[in-house]
Amino acid sequence: MRIVVDLNRCQGYAQCAFLAPEVFFLRGDEALGYRPRVSDDQRERVGRAVAACPVQAISAGPAAGADVD
Amino acid sequence: MSTETLFRRITDYAARPDPYPLYAELREHGVARQEDGSYLVGTYDEVVQLLHDPRISSDAHSRADVDEELLRAEADGMTPAFIGLDDPEHERLRGIAMRPFGPPHSPGRIDALQDDIARIAQELIDGFDGREEVDLVDDFAYPLPVTVIGRLLGIPSGDMGQLRRWTDIVIASLDFDPGEDPAVKRRRGREAGREMADYLGDLAASRRDHPSDDLLSALVGDPGPEGAFRHEELKSTAALLLIAGHETTVNLITNGALTLMRHPEAAARLRNDPGLMPSAVEELLRYEPPVQLLPQRSPLTDIEVAGVTVPRGAPLILVLAAANRDPLRFPEPDRFDPARRDNQHLGFGSGIHSCFGAPLARVEARIALTALLARIGADAHPVEDPPPYRRSPVLRGPRHLLVRH
């Protein structure tokens, strides 16, 4: 599945990095890094991260970020 | 009625089952000065703006009405925890506490707790067998998070009863109860807080020589680049984590269970599609937030909020639960919609003091409510609705929730 994080919206609350630590991670204390393509076994955790983002900066799924490419 | 009495009416115990009409009245007035000189804010944009404003202090020393009890406690060597401090001290202490709790240094700790939490939840639910009536607070929503925070910190389970008694006194001391002398109550609260902090400090010190895989061991054992806690800082931080890990999640789970019983269609939908539960938990945090308002803030200088000047040092009360139902921000705010999109609620606050334990609370609430829905049938219902509530208008939730299932 594809993942796109709008890093302009991201404020470093790191909720995604708690909930899907293999997909989202912090570089230093606030800058977010993430893997843009992950296998389907991460689907549930990624879904939790999407729901938990306080600024709703994450989209995930086959069409995520389609408008960005 | 005059908006000058709004806070009195909100804190009146009679308003506890349904404070939302009062919050609507507050939103209509933007910023409401109270008869005691404090200011109440309940509109979404203004609350968010204030939560992100560095001129708004969380430090009790910034208040014009200095708390004598606090000064006495500090003269005795106690230090406030980071919830009651401003940056840069807040950031330093929160950073040290975060090191063993979450990313970047401990990214998997909460994730790794999930199986444990699910097992504890299942054991509690198995205890429902053979009983027609259960108390979702005493039998489920209370023991779950308390067991989890106890294990996370590394507290022997036999000591949790004493910690519960201290916690109850500390929480009662934060309350607005017209029947009691506030000075006496605050003193009692500080004494209980001190005993709890001493206990946790001794326990942490004993982990220095015998470390184990818990937070207290990590907090005394592994200083990062920020340095380590001083002993007094460690004590107040451990007490904060324990207290904040107590009632808040209890209320999130209980408010959640009650809301789902009141909305059988949403409950049915979640039974069929547990993948919707993370979004439902966010909606619960908006619709029935366990922390209804933040009473501890004050401006460092005169500031203007929605055309009203709030003077330096005045108590500034941010009503998160009112902002969460602001129709200017959320369409149909009084509707519980477990699939709501664009849900930037303030259930965990926002800005630098945004809830430290949020990731743990989310995991616990999701697991607890999923397990509960799987166990109680669609015909489960509260014996009384509204149920009896706890006293506190801040940490709002049912004291008991008797359910026939």
UniProtKB/TrEMBL annotation, chain A:
It comes from the Bacteria. Gene3D superfamilies: 3.30.70.20. Keywords: 3Fe-4S, Electron transport, Iron, Iron-sulfur, Metal-binding, Transport. One of its GO terms (molecular function) is metal ion binding. InterPro entries: Fe-S_cluster_ET (IPR051269). Its cofactor is [3Fe-4S] cluster. Coiled coil: none annotated. It holds the Pfam family Fer4_15. This is Ferredoxin. The lineage of its organism: Bacteria, Bacillati, Actinomycetota, Actinomycetes, Kitasatosporales.
From TrEMBL, chain B:
CDD domains: CYP164-like. The keyword Coiled coil does not apply. Pfam families: p450. The keyword Oxidoreductase applies. Keywords: Heme, Iron, Metal-binding, Monooxygenase, Oxidoreductase. It comes from the Bacteria. GO terms for molecular function: heme binding; iron ion binding; monooxygenase activity; oxidoreductase activity, acting on paired donors, with incorporation or reduction of molecular oxygen. Belongs to the cytochrome P450 family. This is Cytochrome P450.
